[in-house]
Amino acid sequence: MIESSQEPYTKENGGIYFYGNRIESEVTKADYETFEFLGGVSNDMSNKECKFDDYTGVYAKDKNHAFYNRGIIQDADVESFKYIDGYYAQDKNAVYYSGRRLEDADYNSLEIVNGGFWCQFLKDKQFVFYNETKLTNLDSKTVRIDFPYIIDKNGVYYVSEESPQDNIIFKKVLSADINTFVSFGDYYISKEDAYAEDKNNVYWNDEIIVGADPNSFSIFDNVSCDVFRAKDQHSVYVNGQQIKGSDGQTYKFLTCDYAKDAQNAYYRDDVILDAYSDTFQSLDGLYAKDKNNVYWAGKPIKDADPETFITCYRSKAQARDKNRFYNGSLVVDLLLDTECNQLN
Question: CB within 10 Å: which end of the chain, N or C, has fewer?
């Protein structure tokens, strides 16, 4: 019988149980009456309201011990032990990362340096730490994070990870102005890809986008897409690459896959040849059409009739017109969506 719950711990049948990474296990030597959950992090670091089974690293304590997940933290001072943020905790004697003592960290001057996805940076009066690695090349007094960049008095650095919560790679962003540098880190397609700008240039990750205008540069809200669109007064950019011939002033973002401007229609970063921009419209899935053609993934479907073409309600990859049925770009005899199996 579950008597009470402190995410991700439960008090059950006289014991304390930890539930993390979808595995339940009993907490070692926990005191039933005084046990309390202090805080922790989840698999989804962008999820500010952690779900019960999302937790990967948590702290707790009772009258006798401090705990990380279900294990005792040896030699921790229980009375002063507290959770800081991310994977960090401290007591009056030490700082802890993932339940392990963090060497050389000054517990009297601690400060979490967060940005975007990252909750793994910590600084004190002398050093900056990533997870439990001391970053000796950064100045702790001036360091700031603007996801996925780190800026200090000496420069701007684009940061990528070799693997989750593992080593990080610093790439100095050449020619970046530290006083005006800002990222568009709220808009990203992955943990590491981003646009940024300063008073002189626009950047994709650590590279200058040659010719991009920082004064008119803006980002399309395409967080859910796997392509990352932006524009200035002259052109449109996809994942940092300029789309040749695009018009930044008239460009319209239709879906993750389709867009158009005054002259052209686009499938991702490619111009759709001979498409009519003024009548071009996106449909469900990878379908689109204009006054002359129907398209699947940017390619015309031969002999499809745009006037009567409709996508099926239950499937974004099935469609029909007055003459035929389609599965993607292929003509088929019947559709899996039975409600769509009737020609106009």
Answer: N
